[in-house]
Amino acid sequence: MYNRLSHLSYHQLRILRVFLQAGKQVITLKQLQQKTPLKGKPLGAILSSLSRTRFRGSSLIVPVGKDLHTQTLRWTLNHQLLDISKAQAKVNQLLKTYA
Predict the structure, then answer these.
(1) What percent of the chain is modeled with pLDDT above 70?
(2) Is residue 98 part of a domain?
(3) CA–CA separation, 53 vs 47, rounded Å?
(4) Boundaries of domain holding 12
């Protein structure tokens, strides 16, 4: 499963790292915009892509409803799919290859 993370793009890995750092917390679009250089449609495209990324038949990230203030979707990591510490190590390893 963790080897499949190597198929993700640089921006997908950066967004995934934010989700992994948040643990089981719900992430809003505004929080993602503050923690990454992505904004607007490119960020939405990455989120859409990650939500369509399937492991064992389940989505990597899942929507958990709309934000009350911005009417954008809130997201969380699907914790049933992976061990957070192992995934963080793999994502950090992959991101170092881009430096």
Answers:
(1) 99
(2) no
(3) 10
(4) 2-93
